[in-house]
Amino acid sequence: EDVLTTLKLLIIGESGVGKSSLLLRFTDDTFDEEQSATIGVDFKVKTLSIEGNKAKLAIWDTAGQERFRTLTPSYYRGAQGVILVYDVTRRDSFTKLENWLNELETYTTRNDIVKMLVGNKIDKPDREVDRNEGLKFARKHSMLFIEASAKTKDGVQCAFEELVEKILQT
Ligand code: GTP
Ligand code: MG
């Protein structure tokens, strides 16, 4: 019999790395080449069935741009999982990951929050961050890791499913 669990998930990372695109690919199976920057916070709900469990996911997608960000503490409050995104074609978005982890630590009270690192835009040819670098960073910070493309769908479903599976195990 299915048990319905509600989970709060967050998506964070620099502006333009594809947070909203990953979310919209996952929830609506759409992709927009001209996806506009998020202002404030967006929110989507999706139900996922995993191993006889039904999880209702409440997914929060915040603006990467500081000037569009509001209500940061309430954004983080009560989250069980976080997806931290960088763009494999932008070294700076990878370098800034440490800042995002610091912010996460500042605003979350629970230390059992499950973290998934996603290297997005692997469909693009001009890569600046190797898969191994992503993997190494993820291991160092006890995060799950996956490379993905919101454009081609590669790894997107997997990223959310693995995160939820891990949360349900803990
Ligand atoms: P903010 O809301 O400003 O924080 O940005 P974001 O992280 O939500 O990025 P967004 O999803 O708006 O994507 C930024 C741009 O990158 C858009 O033009 C997207 O179409 C594009 N994009 C996102 N994901 C991919 C991808 O996997 N491949 C390619 N080629 N482009 C992508
Ligand atoms: Mg966005």
UniProtKB/TrEMBL annotation:
Belongs to the small GTPase superfamily. Rab family. It comes from Austrofundulus limnaeus (Annual killifish). The gene is LOC106526797. One of its GO terms (biological process) is protein transport. Its main location: Golgi. This is small monomeric GTPase. Keywords: GTP-binding, Hydrolase, Lipid droplet, Lipoprotein, Nucleotide-binding, Prenylation, Protein transport, Transport. The chain holds residues 3 to 172 of 205 of the full protein. The keyword Repeat does not apply. The keyword Lipoprotein applies. It is found in: Golgi apparatus, cis-Golgi network membrane; Lipid droplet. GO terms for cellular component: Golgi apparatus; lipid droplet. It catalyses: GTP + H2O = GDP + phosphate + H(+). It comes from the Eukaryota. Its EC number is 3.6.5.2. It is an enzyme of class 3 (hydrolase). GO terms for molecular function: G protein activity; GTP binding.
